[in-house]
Amino acid sequence: MRIGELAALVGVSTQTVRHYHHLGLLPEPARLANGYREYRLRDAVVLARVRRLAELGLSLDEIRDVLADDQGRELREVLGELDADLARQQDAIAARRARLAALLARPDLEPDSTVSPEMADVLRDLYAAGSRFAEVDRDLLTLMDTTAEPAARDAVLDLMRPLTEPAALARGHELYARLDAVAGASPGDPRVTELAADLAAHIPGEMAAAMVEHLPAGEDGDQPWLEMMGDELTPAQTEVFRQAVRILAGRT
Amino acid sequence: MRIGELAALVGVSTQTVRHYHHLGLLPEPARLANGYREYRLRDAVVLARVRRLAELGLSLDEIRDVLADDQGRELREVLGELDADLARQQDAIAARRARLAALLARPDLEPDSTVSPEMADVLRDLYAAGSRFAEVDRDLLTLMDTTAEPAARDAVLDLMRPLTEPAALARGHELYARLDAVAGASPGDPRVTELAADLAAHIPGEMAAAMVEHLPAGEDGDQPWLEMMGDELTPAQTEVFRQAVRILAGRT
DNA sequence: GCTTGACCTTGACGTAGCGTCAACGTCTCT
DNA sequence: AGAGACGTTGACGCTACGTCAAGGTCAAGC
C-alpha cells in the first residue's frame, strides 16, 4: 500500500500522513526500491487510532503522549482535562453570544456601540452629534469604558446619570456649542471665564468631588489629563477646563 | 505618550500595538527625535475600538474591513455571521462533550475504545485477549469502524451480533486458539483444511453473503484483503482463510 | 564619567496542523 | 514517446501575536 492509498483508506491527505511521520506519530514504513513508502495494514490501524484521538480534539502532542504509555491511565486524564476545557469554551461562547445578541438588538449599531451596554445608552442620550467637542468627549468616555476597572466604570456611570435628564441635556448641548464657539478665541477672551463658571456649575456635586480627587491639579494648574488631550483642544478650550477645575476644587 | 504607556492604558502588550501598526489597523504616529513613537489620545481611542471588536471575536482582517466602511452596515453583517459561527461551534462542542462523557464512563478506557460505542461493546465481548490472532482481527474491526461509511459500519455490527452470544463466543475463542496453533504449520497441514471448514461453519449465513460480495476472490483465490494483511498472517493461516472463503462462496 | 535598569528600535523566528507550491523522479497507459 | 497520475524532499503560508537578539536612549545613583 502506498501513501495515497493509505491516506484515502483512512480519509486524510498524504500531507497529513507525512506530517505525522515528521512528528513521530506514525513510524516511517519500509521503502521500495524507488523510494516510495510501502505501508502495511498495521500502519493504517495506527493512523486510524491517531485520527480518532485527533477528532476528539486532542493535540498531536497529547496523542503522542497517550499512545506512548500503553496504559489507559493518561488517556483518561487527558480526556478529563479536555472535557473541562470544552466546558470553559462553552461558557465563553455563551457569554459572547449574549453580548452579540444585545449588540444586534441595537438599532444604532456602530463600532463604538460595542462598549458596555450601560455606557452605550449614556452615549446615545448625551451626544446627539453636531458638536466637534462632543465627539472628543464621547471618545474619552468610550476609552474609559474599555480601559477602566468595572467598579470605577460603574461609579462614573452613576455620576453621569443626572446629566442625561432632559433639562441637563439641553444645557449640556448648549455648553458644547459654546466650547465649539470659543475654539478660535484667545485664552484671555472674556467668554472663557464665563464658560468655565457655567461648566463648573453644570457638574453635579459628587462628580466634582470625584473629578478633583482623580484628576489632581499640579501647582500651576498643569493637569496631565489636559496635556494628554493634546491637539484635541485649542488653547482657549484648555483654559476653560483649567479654570473650571479650579472652581470645582474650591467648591469641595 | 509612548508605546508602553499606550499599551498599559488599553491593556495590551507593546508587541500587539506594533503588530496592529504592521497590519495597518492603527496608524503609525509621529516619531520623536530619538525615533520613539509618540502617541496621542486619538490613538488610544482607536486602539480601544480595535480591542473591543477583537474581544468580540472578530479577526483582525474583519476589524480592518469594519472600521474601513464607516457605516454600521458591515459591522452588523459580520457580527451576524460571527454569531452563526459561534452557534455552530456550540453544537460541535456539545457533540464532542457527549462523546467524551460516554468514553469517560467506560471502565476499560484505552485508545481503541474511541471507536463508535457499539463497536466498542462488540470488541469488549469478542476479544478477551490472549490470542495473537484475536488482536489482528480486532485491529481490522477498529480500522473498519473508523474508515467505513456509518451505514456499512452499522450493517457489519448487526451481522456480528450473533457472534457475541455466549456459545458462539466460546467457539470463537477456540477457533482463535487453533489459528494461533496452526501458525507455524505448513499450508498443507491437515489441520488447515479442518480449521477452514470449522471457521466457515462458524460464520452466520448473511455474514457469509456479505463477505463474499465485498471480498470477491480472484481466479486462483488471490484476495486483495488477504494480501493487505501481509506479514500479519503466516502461510498456513493465509491458506485457512483462502479455503474458508472458498467454502463460503460455495454456500451462498 | 560610568554603570544600572527601564524603556525604546527593527528584524527574525516560533506557535498548530497541516495546505500549497516548487522542482523533480517514477510508473502506467496509449 | 508523451501524457497524466502518482511519489519524493523542502520550503513557505496561515492567526495573532510571544519571544529572543542586538542594539540605542534616557534618568538616576555612584
Describe the 3D structure.
The structure is a homodimer of 252-residue chains. The termini of chain A are far apart. Chain A is built from 13 helices and two strands, in the order H-H-E-E-H-H-H-H-H-H-H-H-H-H-H. By secondary structure, chain A is mainly α. Residues 218-222 of chain A have low confidence and may be disordered. Chain A has helices spanning 3-10, 14-23, 41-56, 60-68, 73-105, 117-126, 132-147, 150-160, 166-181, 190-202, 205-214, 224-229, 235-251; strands at residues 30-31, 37-38. In chain A, helix 10 (190-202) packs across helix 13 (235-251) and helix 11 (205-214) packs across helix 13. In chain A, strand 1 and strand 2 (37-38) form a beta hairpin. The first copy, chain A, is elongated. Chain A has a two-stranded antiparallel ribbon with strand order 1-2. The relative contact order of chain A is 0.06. Chains A and B meet through helix 3, helix 5 and helix 7 of A and helix 3, helix 5 and helix 7 of B. The first copy, chain A, binds a DNA duplex (30 and 30 nucleotides) through residues 2-4, 13-16, 18-19, 23, 34-37, 54, 59-61.
Please tell me what the overall shape of chain A is. Answer: elongated
Q: Major beta sheet of chain A, specifics?
A: 2 strands, antiparallel
Alpha carbon gap, first and last residue of chain A: 87 Å
- Estimate the mean pLDDT confidence of chain A: 86
Features:
homodimer; 252 residues; mainly alpha; two-stranded antiparallel sheet; 2 strands; DNA-binding
